[in-house]
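Internal tracking record. Fields below are filled automatically when a chain is submitted to the structure queue. Please do not edit lines marked as system-generated. If the sequence contains nonstandard residues, flag them in the REMARKS field before resubmitting.
Queue: standard
Priority: normal
Entity type: single polypeptide chain
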Amino acid sequence: MKIYDITAEISSALPFYSENDPFKFDRVLRLENGDACNLSRVTMSVHTGTHADTPLHFIENGAACDEIPLEHFYGKAKLFRLCHKEPRNISKDDLLPLDIQADDIILLDTGQSCNMSKPLKKDYTALSTCAAKFLAEKKIKTVGLDYISADTYNAEGFPVHHILLGNGIAILEGLVLQNVPEGEYEISALPLKFKGGEGSPVRAILVARHG
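SYSTEM-GENERATED OUTPUT FOLLOWS
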């Protein structure tokens, strides 16, 4: 058994979608100061780093973190590598050759994982609306991407999120997939059980049972 950690390290080095989503880590108590223990406080958006989007993020009365079935974030996953030489939207044609079936969790590596420890790159690769509609027609459970958003930066109306989440498809964003071979794995990327939460950081791993 081999375990791949596909989670970006949470720190101020992450790309942040908005300046209104700062990350702050404070050590409130310190052993070195004579306190009884080390105790920290974290301030951040629930969409920081490697995270899950649930339907409530864009869909009124959509499922929240405490409501969405955990099968969206745990079970068999298929990792596909898409070779894009320059940033562009993932098209339906990119997805047609792939073995994508109903209820799949699919992870798309577009070579952007190295940017998950750098300042925001606004011309990142995202999904096209045609690709999102194709995934909705396939009735997958979850799609995972290797940068911070399924939509292009500041996309008007965030159509990809609306298509996916509106069809009950969960989204994993900010995955680190660069050193993981293509293939099938067991994934665990469980969101925290925020009551009414529209998203959550996750500790995402892939488990290869053989090899």
